[in-house]
């Protein structure tokens, strides 16, 4: 089959491509031969346009006038917050009004003030695994817990309830978009999150502190307090989205540094490379692989005419491997410069928690280096069965010497 024909028939709703870690060759074909690809309708839902080139993805992420998020940002007509409207699934000006309430609390300078909480979480987790003599699952034991331990502190959730946050986020970010059991678990988790945070909101309105729940519970939009529906959607988004990037980057970074022992030794010898190594891990993993938009009017992308109402999916994971932007894009280079990846998105929907995620990943690998240890992968990792999230559900490891 000719390359152009193979690209035109690619089906990005075939979840096995992602679960079996085969999507990058598919994206390479599409980028080279059909970069604005019409993905035909499937039993799961209608067709959509798939953007795989860096320039197209970045341009589309910047075009919030013609490409809307309000219809949903997952490929399927499904929202983690259910019928509620959250920042992800919202356009300006409403999006900007709600976003600006939390932004000051998550700026780089404010994240520095949360460094003690990040340090504490990392040390707690590494102390725990140091006591383990044999093999354990990195995802369950470390990667899934780190962002939730930190986010619990940032939100103001009592430490005793942090394990509940891990459970909620596992269920909110369901593994298989076609699995109805997962969808039931999602709905159940959503109800539990709303019930829990409704009580916490009432408490913070009576007795505000400096945490993010207090900021949101007492925040205002158009001069009025946020409604419960607005707050509930915010909380669900923070619990779900506050987990994915750091969780999968820690797992993926561990796997990459095991596969490239010479790179790990470079970091041991020169820890000034750590910030650029974190950026390369983020580029290579791209935990949130894609986001959807809906065309509000006819437009042209590349050589394709997009009709009003068409779905357009921005594949950040494909853009981050574009050879027109990244030299040898499939190589893992911890000194890659420049590295203008799109892992946190672009434009008005740039990830709220980018500074926090970077700090968590950097602190984790920095403390591993400081302790003179490393994680040795002991078996095959298991990929998340999803085409939106790029990560791992299992990664068997043991602790070894650096």
Describe the structure.
It is a single chain. Helices cover 49% and strands 12% of the residues. It has 402 residues and is an alpha+beta fold. A hairpin with an 8-residue loop joins strand 1 and strand 2. Helix 7 packs across helix 17. The chain is globular and about 55 Å long. The mean pLDDT is 90.
Low-confidence stretches: none
Q: How are the strands ordered across the major sheet?
A: 1-2-10-7-3
- Please count the beta strands (DSSP E, at least 2 residues each): 14
Radius of gyration: 21 Å
Instruction: Estimate the helix proportion, in percent.
Output: 40-55%
Average residue pLDDT: 90
Structural class: alpha+beta
Q: Which range does the strand content fall in?
A: 5-15%
Largest sheet: 5 strands, mixed
In short:
With 402 residues, the protein is of the alpha+beta class. It has 17 helices and 14 strands.
Record the SSE blueprint:
Elements: H1 3-8, H2 15-19, H3 23-33, E1 36-39, E2 48-51, H4 54-62, E3 67-68, H5 94-102, H6 108-113, H7 115-130, E4 136-137, H8 138-143, H9 145-155, H10 162-172, H11 180-206, H12 212-217, E5 220-221, E6 224-225, H13 228-259, H14 261-269, H15 274-285, E7 290-295, E8 299-301, E9 304-306, E10 311-315, H16 316-319, H17 354-371, E11 373-377, E12 382-383, E13 392-394, E14 396-401
Parallel strand pairs: 2-10
Antiparallel strand pairs: 1-2, 3-7, 4-14, 5-6, 7-10, 8-9, 11-14, 12-13
Helix pairs in contact: 7-9, 7-17, 9-10, 9-13, 10-11, 10-13, 11-13, 13-15, 13-17, 15-17
